[in-house]
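User: For my dataset I need records formatted as: sequence, then structure tokens, nothing else. Please produce one.
Assistant:
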Amino acid sequence: LPDLVLLDWNMPLMNGEQVLKELKSKLNTKNIPVIIVSAIAQDADIEKAIELGALDYIKKPIKKIDLKARIHTALLLR
């Protein structure tokens, strides 16, 4: 299993909300930290992601240093 999941909120077939719900509903994946990475950053989407169990929400375009810092923090919290 992965130590961390970077998940886009807007994807074809299954969107990020559906994938996040699936991850958090399974016993073996519910504790894996999930960071949403998306160009969509409306308050309602961010709130929904956090309510569903995402650890963080990063808006694209992403600065490499910001991504590294958030991944580092997520892995420390794990």
